[in-house]
Amino acid sequence: MAANKNFKILVTVTGLPVDRLREFGTVVQWNELGNPTSQELLELVKDCDALFCHGSNKIDKELLDAAPKLKVIGTYSVGYNHIDLEECKKRGLKIGYTPGETTEVAAEFGVGLLLATARRIPEANEASKDPVNVRFHGYLMSGKQIMDTTIGFFGLGAIGSSMLEKLAPFRPARFIYHNRSRKENCLAEYVSFDELVKESDFLIVTAALTPETTGKFDKDVFAKMKKGAIFVNISRGPLVKTEDIYDALKSGHLEAAGLDVTDPEPLPKGHPLLALKNCIVTPHIASATYRARNRMNDLTIANIINGLTGKPMLAPLLE
Ligand SMILES: O=C(O)C(=O)CO
Questions:
Q1: Burial (0-12, 13-18, 19+ Cβ within 10 Å), 15
Q2: CA of 211 to the centre of ligand 1 (A)
Q3: What is the pTM of this model?
Q4: For ligand 1, atom 6, which residue shows the shortest CA distance?
Q5: Whose C-alpha lies nearest to ligand 1, atom 4?
Q6: What residues does the D-isomer specific 2-hydroxyacid dehydrogenase catalytic domain cover (predicted)?
Q7: Active site residue 54
């Protein structure tokens, strides 16, 4: 069957090869570095049939009102907290996403970020640029060892569980977790949120952003954490109150943090958190390998094409 060539499709992600979509109509691809502003997005989406978006694009009532022809959304992400699902449901929109493609790669990154944070790798790299900084002394660039510690997970879905498996060979004394539901046959022990916070030497956040988890890690929580604990967030920035983690790191109560996600994201230039030696900030790149990104792209394109042509999406979120 000949493909309908009349669709208009907006792709908000720069740099991805999306030629397959051109067989179905006109593709407008955002070509600037950085994200379109909400205003730019409203303008771009207004006569589109389909939207290829990612986690930084807010898909809310205002945007949906501005796009009366929109039928299909393919988000280039596994997370969907940026999409107002209720509003989409009311309009009968189809939404596809990219579960599975990011699990292993995000877990690998989480382990890397934990190790880099615990062993101060970026700081050591920076210091090595001048031999004066790295004159040997007994504790030069010393950090925290994983063996015999307690590793805690806030949220233990697919990414957290994969991270746990990857960390097991480092032989921590114990894994603990707090999650919406308890896991069967799990290496980690379920504990209350309070126990998780008080007992973890490494606290890793892999929970989804929901109204319940927004702002969950605030000054009271950081105060309850062990002195010298390490905090890693590869979930979503708004789970953590930015000023409060800054204070906990600045005072030395937390030994270090590795944050792949922040609030706001990205942090403005010169933000105080970026100046802390004991904080590694990366720009939300847990899923950034060529393999994963290509697979996410292929899946998002297939979801959109299937959605537009009346076939079941490969990974539907709403259909
Ligand atoms: O796919 C997502 O939702 C991500 O956050 C990628 O890191």
A1: exposed
A2: 18
A3: 0.96
A4: 287
A5: 77
A6: 20-314
A7: no
Residue pLDDT tens, the chain, 319 long: 456 779 999 999 999 999 999 999 999 999 998 899 999 999 999 999 999 999 999 999 999 999 999 999 999 999 999 999 999 999 999 999 999 999 999 999 999 999 999 999 999 999 999 999 999 999 999 999 999 999 999 999 999 999 999 999 999 999 999 999 999 999 999 999 999 999 999 999 999 999 999 999 999 999 999 999 999 999 999 999 999 999 999 999 999 999 999 999 999 999 999 999 999 999 999 999 999 999 999 999 999 999 999 999 999 999 9
Q: Give the distance (Å) from ligand 1 centre to CA of residue 139.
A: 37
Omega into 99 within 30° of 0, i.e. cis? Answer: no
Q: Is the CB of 296 under 6 A from ligand 1?
A: no
Tell me the two tokens of residue 40: 């730019």
Query: For residue 78, how far is its CA from the centre of ligand 1 (angstroms)?
Result: 5
Q: How far apart are CA 52 and CA 98, in angstroms?
A: 12
Give the pairing type, strands 316-318 and 94-96: antiparallel
